[in-house]
Fold:
Amino acid sequence: MNRYCALLRGINVGGNNIIKMADLKAVFENMGFFDVKTYIQSGNVVFSSKEGNVDKLTILIESNLSTSFSYTSKIVLLSEELLKQVVENLPEGFGSEPDSYRYDVLFPKPPLTSSEVLSALICKDGIDAAFDKNDVIYFSRLGEKSSQSQLSKFVSSPLYKKVTIRNWNTTKKLASLM
Structure:
């Protein structure tokens, strides 16, 4: 049995693509997945499957979600091994000052790579920092100056539609649910 985390993109944000977590869980169970758990309303689903091919699973899940909820579904699917690596093998100091910094993890949707995302990010000196590691981007910004962060420029770029972002606490929680 393989354990995965599906990060849904663009649901329950700004009144768009509203999906109840109970309905989302039911769709995953109807696809034949086991031990399905959802976490918060932003579209995080942890589940088990006999299928070992991430690309095949991604296509299956996106197709079923699109049909079930009448929207164009885009997900980033993470294996248990990858999510564990993201949480345990992080850049030095990342997440260590939660009172001063906001921490996020940017997950690119393949075939987009983390290096392509990093090259599109602009970091404002003394406010932003970005690290490419474990096929994700670890992004931190100074809390008291977060309104000056350049992350909002990335969020308004076309490349952002191929990335999903989770804050560091959510990322750690999802790993613990695996």
